[in-house]
Design a protein that fits this description.
seven-stranded antiparallel beta sheet, alpha+beta
């Protein structure tokens, strides 16, 4: 929740208070160095990509708090991530153009180029997702092979049976439902704060992994997450976690 809140503060610093800014997506969150001691943390970020359209990318890092006047060392950076924020007209709720980012230093140019690359990757993924495109030949062959293997498990004429140490994906499912309370709403409307939704889904995923493994899981990274639709205050939120792959 703190990362999303900081992204909102940075976004409004860039756009001003005349627009409504919402979280559109969260890029991969990666743990660079695990926290092994009790210490103060510094959360920092900046707008790293904005071309004058309605969206902007904000890069965030979490590091051990450095000495006053010093910058965080590379080995002290614990976590990095990027948020995509979109500015909307407060009345029409439609996207509005914001000021483009002016880059001057070599570091700013590097960050801007990285943000542009991330933007292109997200656009490409949107075109190749399952909602836009059917599985390719390789994916179709894999699905067919898995289906045939399931048939073999239930064929009385085939001695092949499911190994006792394996589990069906459906048996790992963990679900939760809760009423969305007003204390978790956005500052400008009665929609639930994106950071709270991220927290809720992360906790369910953590519990799902713990229930299956009968141990305490260790968080490594979070793949890109996209907010497709807003969640109103007072609605019933249904969340589901399922294990997709074991390594």
């Amino acid at each position: 929740m703190d990362l999303d809140a900081l992204s909102g503060v940075i976004a409004y610093k860039h756009t001003g208070e005349s627009v409504t800014t919402v979280t559109a997506a969260v890029d991969r969150i990666t743990i660079n160095h695990p926290l092994t001691e009790l210490c103060d943390l510094e959360l920092s970020g900046q707008v790293t990509f904005a071309t004058g359209r309605s969206s902007m990318e904000i890069s965030i890092q979490v590091a051990k708090a450095p000495e006053k006047g010093a910058s965080a060392k590379k080995e002290d950076v614990l976590m990095t991530c990027a948020f995509t924020m979109v500015s909307l007209d407060p009345n029409t709720k439609k996207p509005v153009a914001i000021c483009p980012l002016k880059v001057e230093t070599e570091e700013e140019k590097r960050l801007f180029a990285l943000g542009e690359k991330n933007s292109n990757i997200k656009k490409a993924r949107a075109k190749t997702g399952l909602r836009k495109q059917t599985p390719n030949d390789e994916e179709s062959d894999l699905i067919h092979a898995i289906w045939l293997r399931q048939l073999d498990y239930h064929d009385p004429n085939n001695p092949l049976r499911k190994p006792p140490h394996t589990h069906y994906m459906s048996s790992t499912t963990l679900s939760s439902s809760q009423i969305m309370q007003p204390q978790y709403r956005n500052r400008h409307n009665f929609m639930i704060f994106g950071g709270y939704l991220l927290k809720t889904t992360f906790e369910l995923a953590f519990c799902c992994a713990a229930a299956f493994s009968h141990s305490r899981p260790t968080f490594l990274s979070l793949d890109p997450s996209t907010f497709d639709n807003p969640v109103p205050v007072g609605s019933k939120l249904l969340t589901k976690a399922v294990l997709l792959m074991l390594d």
